[in-house]
Amino acid sequence: MTTPDSVVSIEHVDLVRSGRYLLSDISLRIERGQHWVLLGANGAGKSTMLSMLGAVAHPTRGTVRVLGHQLGRVDMRELRAHIGHVNPRYRIDAPLAVRDVVLTGLTNTPDFVPRWSPSAEQIARADELIASLGMQKHSDALWPNLSQGERGRALIARALMAEPQLLLLDEPATGLDLAAREQLLTALDELRERYPSLASILVTHHLEEIPTTTTHAVLIRDGRVIAQGDVADVLTTATISECFDHPIEIHRQRGRWIAQTRVPEPVG
Ligand SMILES: Nc1ncnc2c1ncn2[C@@H]1O[C@H](COP(=O)(O)OP(=O)(O)OP(=O)(O)O)[C@@H](O)[C@H]1O
User: Does the keyword Membrane apply (predicted)?
Assistant: First the structure.
C-alpha cells in the first residue's frame, strides 16, 4: 500500500440513510502526524463519520480517500487492515492473556485463528507495545480479570499491532475512573511521541478527555461541520456552546481543557 501525503481526504460528502442526512457536505483533510479530536453532541453523527473513516460505511455522495484509496473503489476489508480502530465496547469472550489479545490485532479477530501462531518477532512487538502503554505488569493477566481502564489500554496496543497509519479512537475514556482516564491520556501522549507519523482521530463528548498532544479539532452538529482546524482556534467558548447548543465556558490549563455551564453576568 502506498503512503500518501494525506491520510484522510473527504470532499463534499453526504451520507444518507433511510432518507435522512446523517452527514451533510463534509470536507476534511488529515495529514500524517496530526491528532484530531471529533466533538459533537449525542446523535450529531460522530460514529457515522468514524465508520466512514474506518472503511466500514460508504458515503452517498462526494469522495472519501483513506490512506490514498477511494472508498467504493477499494477492497474495504484490505483497507481496514491498515486502520487501527479502538472501540472500548469491542467484545473479547475468550479467556486470553493480555499478550495474546494484543497479538490478535494481527489477524483482527476476537480469538486466536486456528493453526496460526505468532513469530518471535511479533511476540516481541506485542511486548513492546504493552510496555509503551504501561501494561507490562499485566502481560500474562487474563482478559476477563482486567479492569476497564486496563482493557482500554490493551485494546490500543492491539490496534497498533498491525502498524496502522491511522488510529481511530471511539470514546476511549468511556467508563474510566479518574486515575484510569489520566493513565490512558498520558499513554496516548507518549504513544504519539513514539510514532510521529501516526495520525489519529479521537471521538468524545467530553473536553476533559482531550489529550494534550491533540493538534486539530472538528466540531459537528446535526451532521454538519461547524468548525475545524487548529485545536487552539477551534475550541472556544463560542464554538463549543454552538456545538452543544448550550452556554458553555471553556478554559485551557497546561494543555488540557475544562468545560462548565456559562453563568450569565449579574445585571446592574
Ligand atoms: N442506519 C440509520 N438509519 C437512520 N438513522 C440512523 C442510522 N444510523 C444512525 N442513525 C441516526 O443518525 C444520527 C447520528 O448517529 P451517530 O451514531 O453517528 O451519532 P453520534 O454523534 O455518534 O451519537 P452518540 O454521541 O450518541 O454516540 C442519530 O440520530 C442516529 O439515530
Answer: no
Query: pLDDT exceeding 70 applies to what percent of the chain?
Result: 98
Q: Which residues contact 229 (CB under 8 A, 6 or more apart)?
A: 216, 217
Helical (H) or strand (E) element with 219: strand 216-221
The answer on 173 and 68 residing in a single domain is yes
- pLDDT grade, residue 241 (50/70/90)? very high
Q: What is the ipTM of this complex?
A: 0.96
Q: Which CATH number is 174's domain given?
A: 3.40.50.300
Looking at the structure, do residues 174 and 78 belong to the same domain, yes or no? yes
pTM: 0.91
Ligand 1 center to 44 CA (angstroms): 7
Q: Which domain holds residue 205?
A: 1-82+165-268
Are 15 and 38 in a shared domain? yes
| CB distance 261 to 247 below 8 Å | yes
